Amino acid sequence: MVQSITPSAVDAHPTQVLPAGADRLALAADPGTPPDQLVEIQKQFASDPSIQATLARNPATPQKLLLRLWRNDPAAILENPIVTFWEFSKPGSAKQHISFDIQFALYQHLLLQPDFEPSPHLVDPKHLVACLGRPSRHALQIPLHLVLRDNRPKIRFELLEYQVPHASRKLGRPVGFPHDDLVALASSGDRGIHEALAAAIGGDFLRPDPLDIPFLGRLARLLLEQRGQSFSIPRNIAKWPCIDSDIVEKLARLADDHFLSVLAAHPQASHALQERLATHPSESVRAGLAAATPLDHLIQRLSLDPNPIVRAALASSPHIQTEIQQRLFEKKDPRILQSLLENPHTAPEILAACSRLRFLSIEHRLRTHPNTPPDVLARLSRQALQVAAPMPPGTIR
């Protein structure tokens, strides 16, 4: 007689069922607990942080599960004996078991510790640089200035070049760095870091915290003293907020014609510098000045400049009076007319005079200009209706 076998008569595999009444935390911590029981504990107590943390530190926890747990608990990597075993068995192999994103999380954890140790045996510098250079996928989750605890130049460069602009765009405002950290960057002696720092502040991605105008001036001078042959450092410093006229003058002494045209329009350019630039042989420099100077005697002089590019730049200035606008209009130069039509400060009588000309795009610009007289707008509307009206059959327009 064959004895019937029912499901209840079959012993389940002992590692598939957790022992009744067992201390789950003790099982999670015990390296002798079978791996599949550890997986089961993790599933049943997924919302229990103490059990999850214990499993992350148990060397018997299967590696696939360990990596999942370490992603949110990178501190466990430093406390799990399995990592020491990997490194002891084959020096340099521990980081090969840890994915890039977990290494990046561990690196940020290390930066938060009282004594920072980069642990290169666990965090591969090449992978770290790659993560810092791809902030859309690997954005820092800690205050960015803490990365400056790491004095490796490549790390600092990637922070300034990629992570800072990304974080600034996400925040909608510049990232704040303590003054001491900015001085450390400016004093680093590394040209790439100096250029990245000047660009980050010039791009409005980075600011001293607290924002201090005299400090920015000292920082700019420090960078300029070490600029060497760099052209990007002075060009980016010219974009910094609130630099003073002395720094603009210093920048002008280092500038070529193209850069001088930018400095000529700088709001902190001194009157003495503007006087010199008004007679500069380069038309682009005089044009840069013409578009921005508020000095009346320079405006008068530049309105008589023989170069139409300079006069067209002057026609775009918010500082010119109606008399100067009329003088510029008289030549009927298309470049000057375009500047007058695009200048929101152009007087209504000048716009009315423009409306009687026949140049392409004038009508559109007149319709959208805030100072176009009402009678001119009405005339333009009538003309548009006449053009759009259907013609009687047989009529030749």
Mean of all residue-level pLDDT scores: 89
As residue ranges, the low-confidence spans are 1-15
Q: Helices and strands: which structural class?
A: mainly alpha
Distance between the termini: 113 Å
Would you give an account of this structure?
The protein is an all-alpha fold. Helices cover 55% and strands 2% of the residues. It is built from 24 helices and 2 strands. It has helices at residues 24-29, 35-44, 49-56, 63-72, 75-79, 81-89, 100-111, 125-132, 153-171, 179-186, 191-202, 213-225, 232-237, 245-253, 257-264, 271-277, 283-290, 296-302, 308-315, 322-329, 334-342, 348-355, 362-368, 374-388, and strands at 175-177, 206-208. It has a two-stranded parallel sheet with strand order 1-2. Helix 3 (49-56) crosses helix 4 (63-72), helix 9 (153-171) runs parallel beside helix 11 (191-202) and helix 17 (283-290) runs parallel beside helix 19. It is elongated, with a radius of gyration of 35 Å.
Keywords for this structure?
397 residues; mainly alpha; two-stranded parallel sheet; 24 helices; 2% strand
Brief sketch in words of this structure:
With 397 residues, this protein is an all-alpha fold.
